[in-house]
Amino acid sequence: MNTTAIISVIAYVALAPAAGGLLAGFDRKISARMQGRVGPPLLQPFYDLFKLLEKEPVTVNRVQDFYVLCCLIFMIITGGFFFAGGSLLLVIFTLTTASVFMVVAAYSSNSPYAQIGASRELLQIMAYEPMVLITAIGFFIVYRSFNVADIIAHPAPAVHYLAGIFLGFVFILTIKFRKSPFDLSMSHHAHQELVKGLTTEFSGKTLAMIELSHWYENIFLLGFVFLFFANGTTQWTVIAVLACLLAYFLEIFIDNSYARMKWQIAVNSSWIVALTAGGVNLLVLYFAIFGFGLGV
Amino acid sequence: MSYVTKSPWIIHYDGSSCNGCDIEVLACLTPMYDVERFGVINTGNPKHADIFLVTGSVNAQNISVVKQIYEQMPRPKVVVAVGICAASAGIFKECYNIIGGVDKAIPVDVYVPGCAARPEAIIDGVVKGLSVLEEKRKSLKEELAAETVKAGMDFKAEGEEREGA
Question: By the 8 A CB rule, do B53 and B59 touch?
Answer without folding.
Answer: no
